[in-house]
Amino acid sequence: MTTWKFKNCPRCTGDMFIERDVDGLIERCLLCGYSRDISKPKNIVSTASGTKR
After folding, report:
1. pTM of the model
2. What is the chain's pLDDT, residue by residue, as a tens digit (53 residues)?
3. What are the domain boundaries of the chain?
4. SS3 9
5. C-alpha angle 11/13/17, rounded to 5°?
6. SS3 call for 47
7. Distance CA 35, CA 23 (A)
């Protein structure tokens, strides 16, 4: 099953669809071919030390 996002391309405002790749999920534009990785990021560890006052 393909998931569509209508009028969502940041380059041409075309329709985008989500497909599964070896590395995860990719969002691709049907009109211009723009693609971006939308896989969930790995756990991010905060290294901030200290508190705001």
Report:
1. 0.65
2. 689 999 999 999 999 999 988 888 999 999 999 999 987 655 555 555 555 55
3. 3-37
4. coil
5. 95
6. coil
7. 14
